[in-house]
Amino acid sequence: MKVGLSILAVSCIFLFSVSAAAQTAADEETPKISLSVPSEAPLRLYLTKKVSKRVGAPVEAKLVESVFAFDREVLPAGTVAQGQVTQALPVNKWQRVRAIVNGDFTPLRTAEVEFTTLILPDGRKVFPHTVETVGLNSIYTEPSNKKNQKARPQNANGGILGTAKQTAKDRISGAINARSRGIADIVRSPNKKEKLVDFLWTKLPYHPQYVRRGTRFDAPLRDPLLFGFVPVKQVDLAAVGSQPLPDSVVHTRLLTALDSASAKPGEAVKAVVTAPLFSPDHKLVLPEGTVLTGTVVAAKKARSFHRPGQLRFNFQSVDLPQEIAKIRPAAPPPATLTTRATLEAAEGSGTAPINVDSEGGVQAKESKTRFIAPVISLMLASRAADTDAGHHHEGGAAAGGEANVSGRTLGGGSGFGMLGAAAAQSSKYVGMAFGYYGLAWSVYSSVIARGGEVQFDKNAAMDIKFGARTPPPGSKFQASETGAQ
Which of 100, 202, 222, 409 is buried most, with the most CB atoms less than 10 Å from its CB? Predict the structure, then answer.
């Protein structure tokens, strides 16, 4: 009896050892993928509080969009980022001169910010180090609470490991151009009180400086962020590198800076996928880190009388990350895929907002409301030049034409801000001069000056759509398809 029990025990131990060894061998054969966010990848953030432009000032922001590694989300949108202002640098001479000409004698500075802590929604902390960076020319407006309370749709792209999340809904449209656009836009746009205060501050000859709440930052990482390794089955990589379905849209960041003022047809363009693309049956097609390569096919500089710059480029090839290409099945799709993809949406980096047309062409937008400013300036200049004593009662009959206090004040303010309004009280001629100067500057900047350029800095956010598009007859870009401008 004892001998039988001993044999049974030995058999069990042997079977257990064999099973464990087989499991260990299987684990060793299963390839693993590193979950890492590469250096130079930007954290797309927006300020939750305004920040003083002084060294050491604390900074708090949130992620506008999720950060992905391979096929999954590693930093969700809304993650809190903390840092500080590391440098306060003077603006360039041209900006300084323009400010002085407009009556602003403040020693203007730009604030460079570094982020050093990320606080995830579950309380975990990650400690990155970002490159010191300045704010972008856009303001992010948080969605309303009503929108946030809406039920989110179920994720149709679960990912090959069951934990991947679908690319966050495009938030590019949430960014609005932050340049000064006058009192009409201030009153109609969100955060009216804050924008009105900003507008009034800029009219003072000297004022405090801070970075507005909602200002967008793209803060590149100095070093990679590591989130461990995950095993991947060969069968789950079967669709990786295959041709995406027509009209599939992938979120990317630009690796090649572009400017309509300097770009040339044939110039190379590269972008990298920042969020995984899945097929309708939940198979991974393009992981994060996939590189898209293409060329500029049309470029036109901005010209006088506000004729805007134009730019068009597309992508012809797709290259998988080397780590993925090495572990795919024996008969996978090619590592380099020939395709056709065009721009669907983008966040511009210049001072002018942009418009992406149905053919993937980009053009700087020129607001039609800019013509309102010269009309207002003309009215103010006319009011400042009005010396008819019979129309004015401020100073009585003895004052005569010198009594046009309101007109001189408006004319001085139009040409030289609040300092001009004060100086205009010395003489009607000073008020008239400032008024006509304001009119001349307004006509030049709103009518005669060059239009905006299409500008994309390195790491600019873009949505790229797969599938050939046939330009409609008569398209201004149709000739570029055959290599002609």
Answer: 409
465 or 179: which leads in pLDDT: 465
User: Does residue 75 contact residue 67 with C-beta atoms inside 8 Å?
Assistant: yes
Query: HEC states along 296-324?
Result: EEEEECCECCCECCEEEEEEEEEECCHHH
For residue 95, what are the contacts with CB-CB under 8 A and spacing of at least 6?
Answer: 108
Tell me how many degrees the CA angle 50-55-60 measures, rounded to the nearest 5. Answer: 35
Task: End-to-end CA distance of the chain: give it in Å, rounded.
Answer: 95
Please, are residues 346 and 271 in contact by the beta-carbon 8 Å criterion?
A: no
Apex 159 CA angle, 157 and 160, nearest 5: 145
Give one DSSP letter per residue of 219-272, joined into a string: EEBSSPEEEEEEE--GGGGTTTTSPPPTT-EEEEEESS-EETTT--TT-EEEEE
Q: Which of helix, strand or coil describes residue 435?
A: helix
Backbone angles phi, psi at 406, to 5 degrees: -65, -40
Separation CA 89–CA 401 (nearest Å): 47
DSSP string, 68-90: EETTEEEE-TT-EEEEEEEEEEE
Residues 6 or more apart in contact with residue 246 via CB below 8 angstroms: 466, 467, 468
Residues in the chain: 485
SS3 of residue 347 by DSSP: coil
Unique residue bearing structure tokens 């060894």: 21
Whether the CB-CB separation of 334 and 318 falls below 8 Å is answered with no
Tens-place pLDDT, residues 388-419: 544 544 444 444 445 567 766 666 666 566 66
- Residue from 107, 105, 108, 109 nearest 204 by CA: 105
CB 71 within 8 Å of CB 227: no
DSSP 364-431: E---GGGGHHHHHHHHHHHHHH---GGG--SSHHHHGGGG-HHHHHHHHHHHHHHHHHHHGGG-HHHH
Q: Whole-angstrom Cα distance, residue 432 to residue 394?
A: 18
Q: For residue range 1-60, list pLDDT tens digits in order.
A: 555 545 555 555 545 554 544 444 444 457 888 899 999 999 999 999 999 999 999 999
- Residue 64: φ, ψ to 5°: -75, -40
DSSP state at residue 153: P
Contact 29, 17 (CB under 8 A): no
